[in-house]
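Readers of this paper often ask what the protein records in our data store actually look like. Below, we set out a record of this kind in full and without editing:
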Amino acid sequence: MADTHKKIGNLSVHPLALGGNVFGWTADEAESFAVLDAYAAAGGNFIDTADIYSVWAPGNEGGESETVIGNWFASRGNRADIVLATKVGGGQPEKRGLSANAIKSGVEESLRRLRTDYIDLYYTHFDDPSVPVEEFITALDALVKEGKVREIAASNITADRLAEALAFSDESGLAKYAAIQPHYNLVSRDTYEGDLADVAARHGLAAVPYFALASGFLTGKYRPGRTVDSARAEGAGKHLESERGRRILTALDEVAAAHDAEVATVALAWLNAQPTVASPLASARTVEQLPALLAVADVTLTEAELKRLTEASA
């Protein structure tokens, strides 16, 4: 099989980034280990989490996902095989933000939970307009110089603020964002396409889209008259209410049939074909959900199929 890995800075990543948001939330440690084992066994090497996963779940404080992944590394002895991404700046009110102190303490807590001495890709999770880009880029650069972080990245940031941060990195010779994690999928294109994607392309940033399957809508399991038992069912089901959402599903069904592939695989393959995209992000609560996601490595859409999906989602 041809090598389908793409580059994020100096990192080489699998075309499916495995989301860790479900670990310690809807998947307990045993279920999480099973998913992680199956992903790695299939050649996957790119795992994404955050210091706040899963603070939204009753009884959780945040850090549960990092702890599960850290325990998996310790159990399997495979840390060097994985490109590990986590995030800072989205924590509890007393920790939230991108001040130099928040970044410095945040990385230490993540390293402890992840049971590692380095993070491959470290994201600023949410922009903090109260902090000048000079402060957080300088703090992130210090982590790179210390060997605690290999590459830095940004999520949930405006095009203007991203451009400002990149310009400061260039002018000062400090670490520079190598990637962006935008909300981006077939039903949500204006959250990335346009100014934000243009800045990313101009500076050579790789995109790792989150909500790549629109909370499950783009798996095809949401259909008129069908009830889905999922923590995200309400959000995903709303897309069925629009003519555009139904049009996208029809196009996905057609292309999936042509490839004898799952709808989810085709939705991810469309993303992977977009400019700047290195690896869309999707999570699996069970091992059974993984094959359709991993199959993105084996599906290449034709120009006509890409056009069909792009026009259906316009």
About this structure: The chain is about 40% helix and 15% strand. The first helix runs from residue 29 to 41. The first strand starts at residue 6 and ends at 8.
